[in-house]
Amino acid sequence: AGARPAAAPAGRAEAPLPAVADSTRALAQRLLDSLRAGLGAPGATMGIAFADGRTLGVASGMSDTAARRPMLPSDRLLQGSVGKTYAAAIALRLVGE
């Protein structure tokens, strides 16, 4: 993970986005490590998308405890019923508009 520029429209080149500061990455890592440990989860990932298009991904713990495989920011996790909350929030926002 790290800064990934958005795709530029055809025929237009854009300057690369600045990298996410090491201090921001370190803070995100500490927060995720603390949250994972507090919940007792074997592994967790976190992605952050900044308003300027930069992205940051961090991981904590293990993705496979039997094989002792560390969690990577690119690992995918099931999200359960979280999608219902997203859909409800968007519906309420549209009603408000």
Report on the structure:
By secondary structure, this protein is an alpha+beta fold. Helix content is 34%, strand content 20%. It has 2 helices and 3 strands. It is extended and about 45 Å long.
- Helix tally equals 2
Spatial extent as radius of gyration: 17 Å
Shape: extended
> Averaged pLDDT, please?
86
Largest sheet: 3 strands, antiparallel
The ordered string of helix (H) and strand (E) elements is HEEEH
Structural class: alpha+beta
What portion of the residues fall into strands of 2 or more residues?
15-25%
Number of strands: 3
Cα-to-Cα separation, first versus last residue: 35 Å
For the largest sheet, list the strands in their spatial order: 1-2-3
Return residue spans where pLDDT drops below 50 for at least 5 consecutive residues. Answer: 1-6
- Which percent range fits the helix content? 25-40%
